[in-house]
Amino acid sequence: TVNVRSRLTDRYAPLPETLDQAGLLEGFEGVSRSVDQCVSRQLKLDGEFSSGKVEVNLTVGPDGKVSRLRLPRPVRQTTFGACMQAHSSRWRFPQFTGKPVKASKRFVGR
């Protein structure tokens, strides 16, 4: 199993009234599980995972579904990147009212 530290970044617009940091963190729990699984898959298939830090940027719609995932260029075309892309349709955040929200979380392997 891979140990991952994470940090929610705050560089985007303020959250809508009906979504708070706790809700975002709750949604990122599924993303964290995917990071663990996808790093493990990368290690199993390719023998290495050279990115020590991965910042996961995503857009969450009011329905709580991820509408866009953006990964750093070095990992986009890897086993890890493909795995994360496949997992992104499963991630759920709390529903909210308003426009889609951009959120980012950095994961650091140990």
Please, could you describe this protein's structure?
With 110 residues, the chain is α+β, with helices and mostly antiparallel strands. It is built from three helices and four strands. The chain has helices at residues 21-46, 73-76, 79-87, and strands at 4-9, 53-60, 66-70, 101-109. The protein has a four-stranded antiparallel beta sheet, with helices on one face. Strand 2 and strand 3 form a beta hairpin. The radius of gyration is 14 Å and the shape is elongated.
- The backbone outline, from C-alpha atoms, is elongated
As laid out across the biggest beta sheet, the strand order is 1-4-2-3
Tally of individual helices: 3
- Topology pattern, helix = H, strand = E: EHEEHHE
The end-to-end span amounts to 11 Å
Percentage beta strand: 25-35%
The average pLDDT value, as a whole number, equals 84
- Uncertain segments of ≥5 residues (pLDDT<50)? 1-7
DSSP strand tally: 4
Sheet with most strands: 4 strands, antiparallel
* Cα gyration radius (Å): 14 Å
Helix fraction by DSSP (H/I, runs of at least 4): 25-40%
Structural class: alpha+beta
